[in-house]
């Protein structure tokens, strides 16, 4: 249903624009946080090549707690400031790491991971959590990938009720 043929001649920004339209359509009509977080993780894993993990950590009392994801089992809690996810949470800036083994403090949940992008999810100035994407390939993510992934996360934020409520 959401398979995308990647033509190696297609510029990455066009590829991500296509993905973003499909994502808006996938998430349209549903605003539940857990539901959309699960769908978004699966959508990213299904449409982007060379990934081994994609998913969420949500901010809880100065820690990140594991949320919906696709991939191998992962660390459940990460303090703000620890690892790549903690750096994204602490700084509220996207972290793009070309080689995780050269990143001091990297937390190896899946030993296959070699490069990583972590994008903070900020709503009305508050940190809601982070979206983490891992690849088994060193230097998998370019600046264009980062911008494309940030645009996908923006669509997720706009499509979802981010207030936590049970
Ligand atoms: N590598 C991350 C931890 C989360 S896992 O990759 C799923 C980090 O250093 O924060």
From TrEMBL:
This is Free methionine-R-sulfoxide reductase. Keywords: Oxidoreductase. Gene3D superfamilies: 3.30.450.40. The lineage of its organism: Bacteria, Pseudomonadati, Pseudomonadota, Gammaproteobacteria, Oceanospirillales. Signal peptide: none annotated. InterPro entries: FRMsr_CS (IPR000614), GAF (IPR003018), GAF-like_dom_sf (IPR029016), Phosphatase_reg/MetRdx (IPR051330). Residues 41-155 form the GAF domain. Its EC number is 1.8.4.14. One of its GO terms (molecular function) is L-methionine-(R)-S-oxide reductase activity. Belongs to the free Met sulfoxide reductase family. GO terms for cellular component: cytosol.
């Amino acid at each position: 249903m959401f398979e995308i043929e990647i033509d190696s001649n297609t510029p990455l920004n066009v590829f991500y624009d296509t993905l973003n339209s499909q994502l808006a359509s996938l998430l349209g009509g549903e605003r539940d946080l857990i539901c959309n977080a699960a769908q978004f993780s699966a959508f990213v894993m299904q449409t982007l090549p060379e990934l081994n993990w994609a998913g969420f950590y949500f901010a809880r009392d100065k820690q990140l707690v594991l949320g919906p994801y696709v991939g191998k089992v992962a660390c459940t809690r990460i303090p703000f400031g620890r690892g790549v996810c903690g750096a994204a949470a602490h700084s509220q800036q996207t972290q793009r790491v070309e080689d995780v083994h050269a990143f001091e403090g990297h937390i190896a949940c899946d030993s296959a991971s070699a490069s990583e992008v972590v994008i903070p999810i900020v709503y009305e100035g508050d940190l809601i959590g982070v979206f983490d994407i891992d690849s088994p390939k060193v230097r998998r993510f370019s600046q264009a990938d980062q911008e494309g992934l940030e645009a996908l996360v923006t669509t997720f934020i706009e499509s979802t009720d981010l207030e936590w409520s049970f």
